[in-house]
Design a protein that fits this description.
about 190 residues; mainly alpha; Arc Repressor Mutant, subunit A; 2 domains; 10 helices
Amino acid sequence: MRERKKQKTRWAIQAHAVRLFVQQGYDATTVEQIAEAAEISPSTFFRYFKTKEDVVIQDRYDEVMADEIRKAPADLPPLEVVRRAILVSFETIDPQEVEQVLQRARLQFQVPALRMRSLDSMQDSIRYLAVPLAERLGRPPDDFRCQAFIGACVGAMINGLMVWVREGSDLLQVRELIDESLSVIADGP
């Protein structure tokens, strides 16, 4: 119960921050303004997010994907395991949340400071998601080939996301774009 309340607070802070970033611009928005909008103190903001960048970058989807990788049927090949995990993570996006996810993605691609922080976060995600894949394959958690494979899948996913960010289409289309991008890993161009 306590953990759910903390997560609810975390995502409420994020929603207020994204709304302010869209209205005022990322650089013009302060942590104090975000805290005021979320009805918390700035010190509470920093208990949930280490930096202003993190309020845009952090999400819950890595955990969803890692869980899906762990519970996928044992007979699925690695690409299908990762494809399902990525697509299921998009299924967990609440319809009311779609616009905020799209706005966060736009901010990450458009704001230089966020773009750089996104690259760091992406490396963390790759290492995090490679662990359950390595477990499935009986390899060490830091297996280079698992990390490279997850990196290729994340790169394919980003290709689909970039089209979505440009076109602002619905969630079904982004899932189709990501699925198509992932198929290139198996089939080639």
